[in-house]
């Protein structure tokens, strides 16, 4: 995986690390609270999806 880019480095440079970057467990907890799993354990995120298929002639 490539190197992660930070948004707005000059601004974030002066902020405490903890307020800028939530940890993976914190993010997972927030996602589970916002999008609780259904009875079968799957999670359906409530946004539209668009699937596009393109083909070239020939």
From TrEMBL:
GO function terms (MF aspect): trans-aconitate 2-methyltransferase activity
Superkingdom per UniProt: Eukaryota
Annotated stretches, region: Disordered: 1-20
InterPro entries for the chain: SAM-dependent_MTases_sf, Trans_acon_MeTrfase_C
Name under which the protein is recorded: Uncharacterized protein
Native species: Ricinus communis
Organism phylogeny: Eukaryota, Viridiplantae, Streptophyta, Embryophyta, Tracheophyta
């Amino acid at each position: 995986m490539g190197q992660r880019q930070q948004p707005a480095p000059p601004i974030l440079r002066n902020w405490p690390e903890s307020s800028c970057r939530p940890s993976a467990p914190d993010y997972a907890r927030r996602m589970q609270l916002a999008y609780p799993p259904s009875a079968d354990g799957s999670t359906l995120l409530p946004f539209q999806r668009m699937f596009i298929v393109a083909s070239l002639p020939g």
